[in-house]
Amino acid sequence: MRLDKFLSDMAVASRSESAKAVRAGRITVNGVPVNRADGHIDPEKDTVALDGVQVFYRRFNYIMMNKPEGYVSSTDDPRETTVLELLPDNMRKLNLFPCGRLDKDAVGLLLLTDNGVLAHRLLSPKRHVDKVYRVVCARDVEGVEALEEGITLADGYTTMPAKYERTEARSGYLTIGEGKYHQVKRMFAALGNHVSLLERVGFGPLTLDTSLKRGEWRYLTDAETEMLEAAGGSEKAKKTTEKGKDRQ
Ligand code: URA
User: What's the fold here for domain 131-203?
Assistant: First the structure.
């Protein structure tokens, strides 16, 4: 891969900025300053640094965001502010999109990625990836058994069995393995209640990083990325599992 393409793909510098940085002697490959921005590197093997700071190679980008209220989970919207607007400008070109949606008034864990295949798998209704929501309701929560057995929503759809862990009379954690439109709100509405606060705290193997304030984000760690790829049954994770099986 060309060095300037690598730096641009990693959202570190545009191609023209890369050329300038090379001329200024700010870029090294394997510790040696380079004199061509169009030279080739192997992103899996070579160590590229800008001003002495290593630029790590990411084939895909995975970002955990603590979504604040008032933002919509889409890539662009003519009327609303999108979660992508919480990212710096240089990340716009990464083609990130939210993997799953949270309502405009919902908060908490939102995964953003540019890995369409994995996102598709994680969101597939067949895969039943667990989502955990902290809910605070307007009234005491009654009828938990119905939530746990599967509850029939106003449109006639019966949900899959869920798990509810009560923390207080009006609040608790609901775990669901599916993701229908406004599902959590509609499940509590079917109990005659109303969700006044909805926060996602878990998505598959990911748990909301509570050190992130609302509106803040970070890249997933390598361990989180591996767990996520395994949850989506990616080729890499499958191969690792198969290798693991061979060793047993
Ligand atoms: N269920 C809802 O009702 N809203 C969300 O944003 C997510 C799940």
Answer: Alpha-Beta Plaits (3.30.70)
At 60-105, the pLDDT tens digits run: 999 999 999 999 999 999 999 999 999 998 888 889 999 999 999 9
103 is catalytic: yes
Residue of minimum CA distance from atom 7 in ligand 1: 102
Query: Would the CB of 134 count as within 6 Å of ligand 1?
Result: no
> What's the CATH fold of domain 3-55?
3.10.290
* CATH number, domain 62-125+205-231: 3.30.70.580
Read off the pLDDT band of 243 (50, 70, 90): very low
Does pTM top 0.90 for this prediction?
no
Catalytic residue (one of 9, 77, 103, 209)? 103
Quick check: CB of 183 below 6 Å from ligand 1? Answer: yes
67 Cβ below 6 A of ligand 1: no
Comparing 3-55 with 62-125+205-231, is the CATH topology the same?
Answer: no
Distance between CA atoms of 208 and 27, rounded to whole angstroms? 35
Nearest atom within ligand 1 for CA of residue 131: 8
Q: Where are the domains of the chain?
A: 3-55, 62-125+205-231, 131-203
**90-97: which pairs have CB atoms within 8 A and are 24 or more residues apart?**
90/11, 91/11, 93/8, 93/11, 94/11, 94/61, 96/61, 96/63
Residue 13 pLDDT > 70, yes or no? yes
- How many angstroms separate the CA atoms of 38 and 4, rounded? 6
- Predicted confidence at residue 71, as pLDDT, reads 98
Q: For ligand 1, say whether the CB of 130 is within 6 Å of any of its atoms.
A: no
